[in-house]
Amino acid sequence: MTELKAIELEDVVKEYLSHGEVVQAVKGVSLGIEEGEFFSLLGPSGCGKTTTMRMVAGFEEPTRGVVRLHGKDVTDVPPNLRDVNMVFQSYALFPHMSVWDNVAFGLKQRKVEQAEIARRVGEMLEIVDLKGREKRRPRELSGGQQQRVALARALVNRPRALLLDEPLGALDLKLRQAMQIELKRIQREVGITFVYVTHDQSEALTMSDRIAVMNEGVVEQLAGPREIYEKPASEFVAGFIGTSNLLSGDCSDGVLAVGGGRVLVPGGAGAVSVTVRPEKIVISTEEPANGVSAVPGTVGEVVYLGTYNSYAVSLADGAEVTVFQQNAQDSTTTAERGDSVWLSWQPQHSYVIGS
């Protein structure tokens, strides 16, 4: 027997009327999210990711299509009758209530017995690492602690799925990175399906089991983080996820002529677009041996970024290639602005988009 998905969207469309014209915010999205999965909807502003999540939560009704939770059609079911909870970027904590009362609020509304409330709130505060701060008010907490209170309040009701809409957006970079690890730990401990909306690629790559990359209302690629990074399905995904170099042209006998050099594309033929990640490229002052892709260029800019240098290298045909070089102790390349260099990489690191 096939196990039911935690969440299913079947050909979901959302249309709005804007200035007398019909605008499609979501264009026929179909996907399935597994039980206990950390699933991210990733894309730029206006791509339809938040609208998609709001249709799962019940705050928006699809124009067409079906939303299922655990096999049940909930397309027309109001939000309060869906077994999901939502966490927003604003936290929406009650400022006059203590941490304990904020977390216990939903249980009290459902008239859960006091002993059960005490047990469940205590357990949840321990999971989110807030034990000992039960009596504090939200204003006495840091941004990360307030975020954990919001999580505890949503999780203490034991929803089948938790929906998170850019929940770390208000935090500074260092705290946001720490909270990414915390969120993944909490999700593993409670075992609940998390659906996470973000425009931050590193955030999605860090936490997700799978990612749906959205663009202009459609899912461009749905896969695990490594596959999306290493094997982008489209030029949009290649450019949006991290930094990528896109090289295009006619390929003959597995070789793409680019900027006076060669890009080895095993099995490639005809017009192709190839992507290669900056960290896969080696920068050197001497022409590499045969067996690797090798392209000459001129260093335009060098940016020191602590753990690595970023090089912008201009090719003879006008294309610009970005190279990341780790600042290791044994690093011998010290290319400067204006230097003539060679870029090289292994054939398997040239990925043909759409292959």
UniProtKB/TrEMBL annotation:
It is an enzyme of class 7 (translocase). It catalyses: ATP + H2O + polyamine-[polyamine-binding protein]Side 1 = ADP + phosphate + polyamineSide 2 + [polyamine-binding protein]Side 1. It holds the Pfam family TOBE_2. Keywords: ATP-binding, Cell membrane, Membrane, Nucleotide-binding, Translocase, Transport. Residues 7-241 form the ABC transporter domain. The keyword ATP-binding applies. Its EC number is 7.6.2.11. SUPFAM superfamilies: MOP-like, P-loop containing nucleoside triphosphate hydrolases. GO terms for molecular function: ATP binding. Coiled coil: none annotated. The keyword Amino-acid biosynthesis does not apply. PANTHER family: SPERMIDINE/PUTRESCINE IMPORT ATP-BINDING PROTEIN POTA (PTHR42781), SPERMIDINE_PUTRESCINE IMPORT ATP-BINDING PROTEIN POTA (PTHR42781:SF4). Part of the ABC transporter complex PotABCD involved in spermidine/putrescine import. Responsible for energy coupling to the transport system. Belongs to the ABC transporter superfamily. Spermidine/putrescine importer (TC 3.A.1.11.1) family. The complex is composed of two ATP-binding proteins (PotA), two transmembrane proteins (PotB and PotC) and a solute-binding protein (PotD). This is Spermidine/putrescine import ATP-binding protein PotA. It comes from Nonomuraea longicatena.
